[in-house]
Design a protein that fits this description.
Number of domains: 2
Radius of gyration: 20 Å
Number of helices: 8
Structural class: alpha/beta
Strand content: 25-35%
Number of strands: 19
Order of helices and strands: EEEHEEEEHEEEEHEHEHEEHEHEHEE
Bound molecules: ligand DN4, beta-D-glucopyranose, zinc ion
CATH superfamily of the largest domain: Medium-chain alcohol dehydrogenases, catalytic domain
Helix content: 10-25%
CATH topology of the largest domain: Quinone Oxidoreductase, Chain A, domain 1
């Protein structure tokens, strides 16, 4: 089938809006995207800095896009309740053959043989039409959620990562004597969409939540943080004395020097969660004192990637909740809309962007 698509050549990079002939299998469901979100991963692929990205077998190009809200155009009868007219979110990962993949947890794929739409060996969702299977579609229950549902995919990463934090935090008494995180502080590095979603989730847990970057942020971003009860600080103005004592540090920057900087400010039994990826970031040295600190303070360093069906479902629920309790905070994360042909959006991040969404209708 010949479709309009946003294409790259992974892992080299580049981006064009063009037609591509995709050899479609006989998919039982046909989808048209309404919105597709652009994330740091897409820009990393376009910049050629994510060496793990690759084209589908037999193609010298990859259709980008893994964040999408779609309309079902047609669906064969199925056991998943998917029918023509439904709003759905297609899942990013498709299982390989390892035990985690077989058990429905391809987010924990143990041999790397899974595929990811728009990232690793599978065409993504930034095309005018595509086919899929009902088992990889998350139903969006109500029209009220339609505006924010495109954020479900990035939100699912946060839900899974915080589940990892839950598991790690059980290694010691991590809460106060009421079982809450109220007395604890979380630092989120980075002010992109994932940073904001982490900040909202950290507030749900009761963490004092601090978000940081290497520059100041505009009023829109300050406004959202204030709605959710989180603080911002520009760490380049940190004197080294006031901001420390974090129990949870979440990095969405992928910058080694920044990660090490804040590793040094983590409390006993604290957690460093690595999430941002940027293979082209300059290296930074960890020294012997850093290793001693990780050991002596019982610090856990963890990575987290992707999420499974349950995380998509929780992510959508949380987005609806955050939008309601924080005065539209979830929909405020969408700071701009672009057309499929404006590919410059992949190489130049608009000032103040949290999430730019491509509109396909
Ligand atoms: P994004 O919108 O590019 O956000 C990255 C944020 O980090 C931006 O606000 C950056 O600031 C900020 N940043 C960059 N360098 C530094 C630094 N040295 N110090 C402080 N802040 C810095 O990307 P996103 O929010 O869509 O995704 C965040 C990252 O997570 C990306 O690297 C993705 O590839 C990765 N990711 C991982 C998973 C997963 O593990 C899922 C989705 C995304 P500025 O550029 O705005 O100035 O499952
Ligand atoms: C996606 C994840 C994917 C990851 C790969 C992210 O942008 O949201 O589903 O596993 O990229 O690094
Ligand atoms: Zn993403």
């Amino acid at each position: 089938m010949l479709v309009d698509a946003i294409l790259t050549d992974a892992p080299k990079g580049g981006v064009i809006f063009s037609k591509i002939e995709v050899r479609e299998e006989d998919f039982p469901v046909t989808l048209k995207p309404i919105y597709t979100g652009i994330c740091g991963t897409d820009r990393g692929i376009v910049a050629g800095s994510l060496s793990f990205a690759y084209n589908p077998h037999g193609y010298n190009r990859l259709v980008l896009g893994h964040e999408s809200l779609c309309r079902v155009v047609s669906a064969e009868p199925n056991n998943y309740g998917i029918k023509a007219g439904d709003l759905v979110i297609p899942m990013v990962r498709r299982p390989g053959t390892c035990l985690n993949c077989l058990a429905g947890r391809s987010d924990n794929c143990s041999d790397g043989n899974k595929h990811e739409a728009g990232i690793t060996g599978m065409h993504g969702f930034m095309r005018s039409q595509f086919g899929d299977y009902p088992e990889y579609l998350i139903k969006v229950p109500e029209m009220a959620a339609a505006k924010i549902a495109v954020l479900t995919e990035p939100a699912k990463n946060v839900e899974k990562a915080m589940e990892v934090v839950d598991i790690i935090s059980r290694r010691s008494i991590f809460t106060d004597n009421q079982g809450s995180f109220e007395g604890k502080a979380a630092l989120v590095i980075g002010t992109g969409s994932e940073g904001f979603l982490y900040a909202m989730k950290c507030r749900d847990y009761g963490f004092r939540t601090i978000v940081t970057n290497r520059h100041s942020i505009d009023e829109t971003k300050v406004g959202i943080l204030s709605r959710i009860g989180a603080e911002f600080y520009d760490y380049t103005h940190d004197t080294g004395s006031e901001k420390q004592g974090f129990d949870l540090v979440i990095d969405t920057s992928g910058d080694p020097a920044t990660v090490i900087r804040f590793l040094r400010k983590i409390n006993n039994n604290g957690i460093l969660l690595l999430f941002g990826t940027n293979g082209k970031a300059p290296g930074a040295l960890m020294n012997g004192d850093d290793i001693d600190l990780i050991v002596e303070r019982n610090i856990t360093v963890a990575g987290s990637v992707d999420g499974s069906r349950i995380h998509y479902e929780r992510g959508l629920q949380d987005l609806i909740k955050w939008n309601a309790i924080y005065g539209g905070a979830a929909e405020r994360l969408i700071t701009g809309y672009a057309s499929p042909g404006s590919t410059g959006i992949f190489t130049a991040k608009p000032t103040g962007e949290i999430k730019t969404v491509i509109s396909w209708e």
